[in-house]
Amino acid sequence: MPIDKLGIRVLVVDDERLIADTLALILNKSGFETVAAYSGAKAVELAEVLKPNVLISDVIMEGMNGVEAAIRISASLPGCRVILFSGNAATEDLLHGAEVKGHRFELIGKPIHPRVLLDRLARSPSIPA
Hints:
Layout: E1 9-13, H1 17-29, E2 33-37, H2 40-50, E3 54-58, H3 66-76, E4 81-86, H4 91-100, E5 106-109, H5 114-123
Parallel strand pairs: 1-2, 1-3, 3-4, 4-5
Helix pairs in contact: 2-3
């Protein structure tokens, strides 16, 4: 079922700028309002202003990792859908630690194919307004 993308704000986070910028470009061309950030700390800062409906973040980043950023953003924007992606084995421990604290996030393996991401967004029964 296609989703109405009008007005859906997406924050894409990856410390590899090429990945963040490429995903943001693909999502923008697919009709989403998308902004890229290059660190967990910057994502938290931008989320306060942008109020994204969806956060798509790499997990393993220098400084604040994607799980920490997702927890902070979810605290201030409880309706924000969080999709994490990673190709690192350490991700399981970080996600388990978040689950123990009551946080559950979607996970996609890295490298992420844009079609997989778009399909995942389209399968969402509800993207908050």
